[in-house]
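[retry 2/3] YCII-related domain-containing protein: previous attempt timed out, resubmitting with same input.
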Amino acid sequence: MKYLMFVCTDAQPDTDKENEPDIHAWVAENDARGRRLQGSELAPAAAATTVRVRDGELLLCDGPFAETQEVIVGFDLLECADLDEAIEIARAHPMARAGRLELRPFAEPQR
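[retry 2/3] YCII-related domain-containing protein: success.
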């Protein structure tokens, strides 16, 4: 099952700096095991463009669609057996301590 893992900042990161995981080791391990299909850090939120169409008119706004202190700074596309495995992968990601991670399964195609 595919999960998109949003990597976000958090105003209240973990203050325990002991045994912090290394992002390069996390990427290498999950790539080697075929659990991480793709991922990337994103440009700063200031580089975002929000796109909407209302009454046929294209509306563009600079910046992210939500004004919050927490911002999406990256993503990883995971291939996991189930949510439990996705949670274990996310748990070892450095941003689980420094920020927050959101796991969202891909929707099943409707026929």
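[retry 2/3] YCII-related domain-containing protein: The chain is about 20% helix and 35% strand.
[retry 2/3] clearing retry counter.
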